[in-house]
Amino acid sequence: MSSAHRLSVAPMMEWTDRHCRMLHRMLSRRARLYTEMVTAEAAIRGKRDQLLGFDAREHPLALQLGGSDPARLAEAARTLHQTFQSATRKAQALAVPNSMQRVQDEYLGALTLFETASAEMIKVSEDGKVDHLIEAQAMSQRAAEDLLKVDDVLWPGEHKPN
Asked: Which in 63, 73, 92, 160 has the greatest CB count within 10 A?
């Protein structure tokens, strides 16, 4: 665990939902939070907004994607990738005042890192190399840290690290 994450909250089914994560985030901005386990089938066929959605203030947040069928896990990773692509497009379409352009660029950079990390997850299904997962985790970590910086600008004074 990096020194930036001195507190980790173990996920609990039907408990660590968005509301619980926001409460934990108020306890410490430096906590590493995890989603509930999202099965590949749920990510593919379920309510994506509910299962894969998050509030930017929840970060750093780790998504747990589980299953036993590599093909379905790859499809779930593609679903996640599409979710990040859609979020990036929506954020790019926003009209932002010049005074906030730097913040939007940082936010878009974080979304792009998440998008690239999800593409790395898909590569695992193509060649079986776990190095892609290690790289995806590192990119996601950088993206989460970048979102914390954006958070400082958008919500100054809120949820300061303990």
From this structure: 73
Q: What is the DSSP letter of 157?
A: T
User: Residue 58: exposed, middle, or buried by beta-carbon count in 10 A (0-12, 13-18, 19+)?
Assistant: middle
Could you report the per-residue pLDDT of 3-62, keeping only the tens digit for each? 555 677 777 777 777 788 888 878 877 777 888 788 889 888 888 777 777 776 776 777
Beta-bridge partner residues of 34: 62
**C-alpha dihedral, 114 to 57 to 154 to 30, nearest 10°:** -90
* pTM: predicted TM-score of the whole model, two decimal places: 0.73
Q: How is the chain split into domains, by residue range?
A: 7-154
CB 61 within 8 A of CB 35: yes
The CA-based angle 27-2-135, given to 5 degrees, is 115
